Amino acid sequence: MRKRLEITITGLVQGVGFRPFVARLASELGLAGQVANNPAGLELVLEGPAPQLKQFVARLKAEKPAFSHFETCKIVELSAKGLEDFTIAQSQQSGPVLGWVLPDLAPCKNCLKELNDPQDRRFGYPFLNCTECGPRYSVVHRLPYDRAQTTMAGFPLCPLCLAEYKDPQNRRYHAQPTACPTCGPQLSFNSPVSEAQGPPALEAAKRLLNAGGVLAWKGVGGYLLSCRADLEAPLKKLRQKKNRQFKPFALLLKDLEATRQLAEVSEIEAQLLTSPQAPIVLLKAKSSPQPLIAPGCPYLGIMLPSSPLHYLLLDQYPLVATSGNLSGEPLCITEDEAFERLGELADGFLTHNRPILRGIDDSVVQLVGDQPQFLRRARGYAPLPLSLSQPLPATLGLGGDIKSCLALSRGAQVFLSQHLGDLDLPLAQAGYLKHLADFQQLFEVEVTQSFGDLHPRYRSLDLARGQGFLPRFFQHHAAHAYALRAEAQTMGEALAIVADGTGYGPDGQIWGCELFLTKEKNYHPLAHLASFPLLGGDIATKEPGRIAFSLLNQALGPEVALQWAQEILQKSPTEGQIWLQMAQTGLNSPKCRSLGRLFDGVSALLGLGLEVEYEAQAAMALEWALEPDAAQIEPYPMTDWDWFLMIKQLWRDHQGGRPRAQIAAAFHNGLVKAMLESAQKTGVNQVLLTGGCFQNRYLQNQVVLALKSQGFNPIVHRLLPPNDANLGLGQLWMGTQQITED
Ligand SMILES: [Zn+2]
Ligand SMILES: [Zn+2]
Ligand SMILES: [Zn+2]
């Protein structure tokens, strides 16, 4: 007897090849019915014999397109009403009716098959894609998502592509950026010695890489610089020309097998690497990494190809893939920009004529315990929204000034921009302004209110004011706490432990390790790290020796500090005296209670992070010094967040020749213990862990374990990074919920 199933699916099921997939599956099983998009997802009606219907449901879940995701799937069984064939109902527009844009996705397995099949008409074609994969956010001007609104508008479909595009059974049915060698974009190569178009351009680029050259090439969200990772000469050249001695380079590898040769890969890490989002995953290196790739770092940042061109460029050797710009600056997206900004660095350019509309960096993810944590949420994830439990007025969260990221609410969804860099840099400021306008236009939101950071000198505020916004402000670390509350949809009381770099405090001091009792509508400060003078202000971030001096002076007295500065930093007695005066009088030395800076200072004290090139380098060196038995080491004492005894003991151990790995472990464990004790003292079950210091995987993992072992419910970031990229969401949430300090 024929039955009828009415299936309603909500979640991510539009624009990802779901309807053609369903149509093919129904036809394979001989089922009649209809599928249609609706604003929340998709409605599906099926009629046929019960066993086939059962098979359909099983395969629907097992074989659905890789990027699709069910939030709910409701199935109602009825008697058949006599449908005879399967149809895809026309929605008013061809694309999703969701009203948002999908991220750019790595090639799906079917496209890869075609890419590698000499018989296929798209064999070796770097721009093939389908409804399940390919460029989205980087090529869409505006909604509705239709070819005419993308940068593919200038490439009319050839008859073969058009037939696929119109065929409901084809996986290129309404694939807006679909292309083939006949009708789609083409590569170009140029260098001082040669030029080429089309397939020969790819060959020329590969020859250049092969010979040890540095190639600038147009990736998904902007230009990258690449060279062979197995040759010293190009790596040295790249480091020298980028003026980058220490910051690790990410590697682009062919597949999991190649990855496993260099790094340890768990099952979850393998899933992340091979996911359609294809982020950079920080993996434990098998042997200590090549000093030119990741100096002193036990991890390797590895990504697998995220576009057909990535696949085609890779040969037998791994490539380095680094953004072609200064760290914190936006990617180059146009040819002109690339030639101008990267001309000095590259030996040749591989470009193409499909314009990129938005610069989107590669995302960076690491595993903490067995859960992925974002360090940078960009390509593959942005601009997917976060779903909230209640609709909000149209509001903008302006974010912070480093790792800048905008948050924009529309209804019960918050759209989060990709990583927008460091707003101290003029190019990043221009990028921020562009995205400010673009975001509102793309999501068709008329912003009625905006919120930013309390810091009087944050550029994001000036930039927003210049656009007519009149933002109100929230304290930096409170915004971190509420970002996590919003993300995790936390209800009721929760202790927030905000372990962070620096943020502006309302008393004019530099805050950065703050404990709050948070509730739905208000919060109350409970405790903070004991402060120390930050000698010279911001410059101490680049010269952590200044922090070490400050800590030593306070914990062990001026003689010890002066002697250390003389012996280790080669400071003259006069310079030492000036520092001492600064520490004593506070001259140009604001009080600082940042945990990130404490990490920096301890790292410098142990001689690990005296020379710093990039943000948090010294702090990371301290984490990297840990050994596998770190958790067994007795913690240093810390009472009421005062580090005085901790530094005293740490210094004695260091003087006594105790190995740095053990000292680093005792320091980390001391912080873990302090956090656990705060939770016990507060007695609130939910504990929010947020702030940049929780990028330290040992710290987060140990705190989570310690809290769980004592019956607490630790809450950590899953969807956003713990760092300043989450500030926009926190500001938006605090503003719309009218949260106040009590
Ligand atoms: Zn595909
Ligand atoms: Zn074509
Ligand atoms: Zn922060």
UniProtKB/TrEMBL annotation:
- What EC number(s) does this enzyme carry? 6.2.-.-
- InterPro entries for this protein: Acylphosphatase-like_dom, Acylphosphatase-like_dom_sf, Acylphosphatase_CS, ATPase_NBD, Carbamoyltrans_HypF-like, Carbamoyltransferase_HypF, DHBP_synth_RibB-like_a/b_dom, HypF_C
Alphabetical keyword list:
Hydrolase, Ligase, Metal-binding, Transferase, Zinc, Zinc-finger
Q: Name one GO biological process term.
A: protein maturation
* Residue ranges of every copy of the YrdC-like domain listed in the record: 199-380
Q: Which is an annotated GO molecular function term of this record?
A: carboxyl- or carbamoyltransferase activity
Its pathway? Protein modification; [NiFe] hydrogenase maturation
One Pfam family matching this protein: Acylphosphatase
The reactions it catalyses are: C-terminal L-cysteinyl-[HypE protein] + carbamoyl phosphate + ATP + H2O = C-terminal S-carboxamide-L-cysteinyl-[HypE protein] + AMP + phosphate + diphosphate + H(+); an acyl phosphate + H2O = a carboxylate + phosphate + H(+)
Lineage: superkingdom: Bacteria
Specify the Acylphosphatase-like domain's residue ranges.
Answer: 4-90
Active site: which residues? 19, 37
What family is reported? Answer: Belongs to the carbamoyltransferase HypF family.
Question: What is the role of this chain?
Answer: Involved in the maturation of [NiFe] hydrogenases. Along with HypE, it catalyzes the synthesis of the CN ligands of the active site iron of [NiFe]-hydrogenases. HypF functions as a carbamoyl transferase using carbamoylphosphate as a substrate and transferring the carboxamido moiety in an ATP-dependent reaction to the thiolate of the C-terminal cysteine of HypE yielding a protein-S-carboxamide.
Q: Which PANTHER family match?
A: CARBAMOYLTRANSFERASE (PTHR42959), CARBAMOYLTRANSFERASE HYPF (PTHR42959:SF1)
NCBIfam families named in the record = hypF (TIGR00143)
Record's protein name: Carbamoyltransferase HypF
* Organism whose genome encodes this protein: Candidatus Lambdaproteobacteria bacterium RIFOXYD2_FULL_50_16
Could you read off the lineage of the organism from its UniProt record? Bacteria, Pseudomonadati, Pseudomonadota, Candidatus Lambdaproteobacteria
